[in-house]
Amino acid sequence: MLRRSPSGHLLLQWRILLSLFFCLALALAPTLAEARAGSSFSSSGKSSSSSMGNRGSRTFENNGAAPVTRSMTPTAPSTASPLGGTPAPAYGGSFFQRHPFMTGLAGGFLGSMLFSGLGGFGHVFGGLLQFLIIGFLIFFLVRWLFGRRFAPAGGGAMPRSVGAAAAPAAGRFRGRDTTVGDDDLNAFQSIHAAVQEAWGRGDLGRLRPLMTPEMVSYFSEELTRNTSQGVQNIVSDVRLLKGDISESWEEGDLQYATAYMRWSAIDYVVRTGRSPGQPDYLVSGDPKSPVEAEEVWTFVRGRGGNWLLSAIQQV
Q1: Helix (H, G, I), strand (E, B) or coil at 14
Q2: pLDDT tops 50 at residue 34
Q3: If DSSP codes are grouped into helix, strand and coil, which group holds residue 274?
Q4: What's the pLDDT tens digit per position in 109-156?
Q5: Given CA atoms 166, 169, 172, 177 in this order, what sign does their dihedral have?
Q6: Cα-Cα-Cα-Cα dihedral of 74, 75, 77, 78, to 10°?
Q7: Helix (H, G, I), strand (E, B), or coil: what is residue 90?
Q8: Cα 212 to chain center, whole Å?
């Protein structure tokens, strides 16, 4: 019987471990990147690259702001109300897309089997070359699996990445254009100020009556993330520099309005449980210098009801 030498067996074990680590790192790289992108939030309660929420039939239209990348709104016309109910999920995909960790684990086992078959080659350089070649093959395989997006059967909701970039189809229902007045703009400015204040205090109870349930879920998630990371985003001295209505429309009993918002604020992140002056108290930002932000906010109300924040887009 052919036996491997102890050194050859040890080399094979190291190859297996390295291949597993390599594949897991590749598969989890998008997740880690997203975690970094969401680790610092602006005063509106989200990562600086996030555009989220529901704009009714115009959710995925190009309105000059960043496309909505996070929404429970299906791309097909729907009667689901943003004010309540359970909207359809806004993304689909294969099992491996929904479970990227399993993609990496499968890649690791694939690499392990491949390297086991190469154990007969004793030349170190040849083994290293084989490791690199197979590693790159697994890299492209994992990227291919991770990057693909499939539209669900039966014409259901499209993936978020596809829906966010989709242009409105010709003749698609997009509501009836309306106008709003100065009282409505004043209401939007009041909601904006109240949201900033509540976010800075981490007061989810105060946020609930100001926005739709979908937006509450996003803000709650970010507040929970901050708490788990042991940080708090402090916002103060908020000053609205400009607020203009860009569009308003009706869809059945719902009325929508979108406003451009530009403001300045003292906006910084601190570590909870620390005191000012301690070396690790300030995480990011400047507690003395205001910063400016530009966003597009969409509001919605039922007939005769109050306006609620329904979506936020970056500019």
Answers
A1: helix
A2: no
A3: coil
A4: 444 444 455 555 444 445 555 656 666 666 656 555 544 433 333 333
A5: positive
A6: 10
A7: coil
A8: 18
